[in-house]
Amino acid sequence: MKPEQILILPGWQSSGPAHWQSLWRERLGYQWVEQHDWMRPLRGDWIARLEDVVLASEAPLLLVAHSLGCHLVAAWAAHSRNSGRVKGALLVAPGDAERDELRPLLPSWCPPVLQPLPFPGVLVASSNDPYCSFERACRFAKAWGAELFDAGALGHINADSGLGYWPQGQGLLQAMIDS
User: Fold this and answer.
1) How far apart are CA 91 and CA 69, in angstroms?
2) pLDDT tens digits for range 6-32
3) Which of 45, 71, 158, 160 lies at 20 to 30 Å from 80 by C-alpha?
4) How many other CB atoms are there within 10 angstroms of residue 74's CB atom?
């Protein structure tokens, strides 16, 4: 696959320069899906933006989502007539917008979309993610029909986790590319 066929979908507040998504974008040239408002994400706005990017591509795509970006994939796939353009999705550390502390900040993301994705998915979960329990991540994987990958204790699998380029994640993505 060409780099522009891999879409990076950051979560709420985007992914900073030390985040593995940003490093993959810089080093590998993957396409970043920019959202209008990273601080006050509205599900409908984010779905529309992803739809625009998908429609602009003529080649099959792979989605690489982190945190709220995972929920974007599920919500977009449930509404789009263009999900056939997507080969698969790597869903990393889905946040849980229904947690008491997050619900008032992310109201348009509740309830989450919990239906099978129309393409293969791999959900990477951490046993000590402060934004989503491992058990809840397992329920998301099951609802979305995604294969669950237990990454161990990696926090929110972000820059604070100290992963740098995150070779393990790159290996998971490469397996999806090769399949």
Assistant:
1) 8
2) 999 999 999 999 999 999 999 999 999
3) 158
4) 24
Of 28, 30, 83, nearest to 54 by C-alpha is: 83
146 touches 122 (CB < 8 A): yes
| pTM for the structure as a whole | 0.97
Residue 26 belongs to domain with CATH number: 3.40.50.1820
Tell me what percent of the chain is helix, strand and coil, each rounded to the nearest 5: 40, 15, 45
Number of structural domains the chain divides into: 1
Distance CA 127, CA 76 (A): 27
Lookup result for tokens 């985040």: 19
Tokens found for residue 128: 């000590």
Region 80-89: what's the mean pLDDT? Answer: 97
Containing domain of residue 172, as a range?
Answer: 3-178
